[in-house]
Write the structure tokens for this entry.
Amino acid sequence: MKDIIGKLNTHDKDVHIWGAGYSGLILGYYLKKQGYKVHLYEISNKIGGKIGTNKTFAGPAETGANAFYMNEDALELFNELKLSPVPASKKLKKLLLIDGKVRRPFHPSILSKLMFNLHKRPPLITDGLTVGDFFDPLMGKENVEKYVSPLLGGVYATASEKLHFKSVFGHVDETTQYSSYFEFLKKVLNKIKKNEQLKISGSVTFEGGMQTLINTLGENLKQEIKLNYKTPFELKKNTILCTDAQTASRLLSHVKPEISEELKRIHYQPLSTTTVFTKRDIKCLNKAFGILMPFESNLNSIGIINNKAIFPANHENINSYTFISRSLSRKNDFLTDIQYLQSDLSNDDVEHVESKFWENAIPVYDLQRYLSVKKIHQLLRNESGLAIFGNYVGSISLREMLVSAKSFSLKNRLHT
Ligand SMILES: Cc1cc2nc3c(=O)[nH]c(=O)nc-3n(C[C@H](O)[C@H](O)[C@H](O)COP(=O)(O)OP(=O)(O)OC[C@H]3O[C@@H](n4cnc5c(N)ncnc54)[C@H](O)[C@@H]3O)c2cc1C
């Protein structure tokens, strides 16, 4: 269920999009390409929403998304936009904090447990199944918390016991009963392998950071975007909401109360991003993508991204680490975390800090979100002229949102 909700009236050329974050921009881009006359309304004084790169004297600092995971559609889009993606370094170590120690995710003891249970039949995939329920029989509850929660937490910031299985793994295929965990993992790995065969694969950014992607989309829609747009909401013939779910709920409260109620049920996880530029490097993170922590660890962060190792071209001679935490970070939280990893680093080693707190950072991909989105799909099934998009509809990832936007524009071709 990754589709944008609703459909357009394809006989009407004008389309009114509310919100010029990534979802509004990418959808605006594809609809304009189809010949629609796009009107893009943004309440703030800038485009991009949760994507932005602050240029500081010490180096670039991403305030939200730091990378785009490639696929074929992204390759095609970046060619169209004449954007040259900067690929992430390959073969970086992925680290986890396990029992208070920095480790590779799959060390021998967990691997042998996995091998032993791979033949087991996983649970039936029902609407109520969580990621935790699915993996418990394979590796046990404790190991799910130690390994699976932090690994998926790096994307969803939600524990496996709450994370909705179909929402996270629904793209693998439509199977409702895998014969074994082996069959499931083979399908996941095949999916990853397919993307790795592309000319440019894996994570990418751009010269100037993620802001460059936003600026380029913005340039393409220069005539269509209205910033600081405070005019009260009006449901016009072709209206698309590309805000967060809570805002969409408020906008629709009088005109579509039933949909508004469902949107209100979608919850959000707050997140802080703190980018720290240091004079010395954190040794255990050398040649590592970063490190992920269990939510209940001794550290304040749930993940630390090693920006220089991932994108050396954008961080020449700069040690830059981004600390992600699930609440508003206090001033020295990052220092406590650094010192946990390397006790001889101190405030004197810190050159600059850039912080950003997002109250509604990412939607919680739980059963409630799934049921609400399903219900709204049903409510809009027989209507045209209203559509709903954003990272709570089908996927948080920029790549999957691109796929949804492109496919929506093709399904809603303008009748001229
Ligand atoms: C810390 C963090 C790290 C992330 N890292 C990655 C990553 O590395 N890779 C990845 O693929 N994804 C990542 N994501 C997810 C990705 O960034 C988001 O899913 C995506 O940017 C969300 O875009 P959106 O358009 O749905 O929402 P938003 O970015 O929230 O955009 C909504 C827009 O609507 C506007 N708006 C609000 N109210 C109104 C109104 N009344 N009228 C008009 N406009 C309005 C807002 O000002 C905003 O511009 C990350 C997210 C976060 C928070």
User: Anything to note?
Assistant: The pocket of flavin-adenine dinucleotide is lined by residues 18-24, 41-44, 49-51, 64-68, 229, 242-244, 247, 271, 273, 358, 361-362, 390-391, 396-398 (CB under 6 Å). Residues 107-196 form one domain. The radius of gyration is 22 Å.
